[in-house]
Amino acid sequence: MLGALQRYADPNDVHVLLSHLHADHCLDLPGLFVWRRYHPSPAKGRGVMYGPSDTWSRLAAASSPLGGELDDFSDIFEIHHWVDNQPVQFGALNVLPRLVTHPTESFGMRFTDPAGATLVYSGDTGVCESLVELASGADAFLCEASWTHGPDRPPHLHLSGTEAGQIAKRAGVGELLLTHIPPWTSREDVISEAKAEFDGPVHAVVCGETIDVRRH
Known about the structure:
alpha/beta, 2 domains, seven-stranded mixed sheet, 10 strands
């Protein structure tokens, strides 16, 4: 993450919003901690970090140079915890978190800009009503689709392309943007599943892509 981040922003200027604390979503953050703590041109102040209730303890353990110890990174980030359905103002954006269903505490987020354009991010989740409510009427819905549909898929873990499409249809979103598709899953099959359920635009995003979110 840190290498790619430098193409778009100064790591000293960024803030962090975490959906959940599984390794594939947060374990590159200790590298950012090193940057902000030891860079010869330091940040002007602490960054802001929002995440689940165990954000500090999980990342403090991951960032510690020695096993069994904790790195108190509150010197470089001001840490806040999401509260389900309690919006926060983050710069010009209004951010509404909703608790979704996953083996660990996980949040989807709804971002609304001053013009009223809305982007909803599912986070990692299985099918749940809170995600449908969160995505209702969104201009763009960035939704995980980790596998193709099948009866053997465990519930409350991830979404299939079929389920992502069904949620997009129920929520009445303007555009469905699929993400979190692993290399061992066919992107084409996931896209086809979603298109079979949702009549609007469907696209699987790629790393580094820019999406222009406009009100529909």
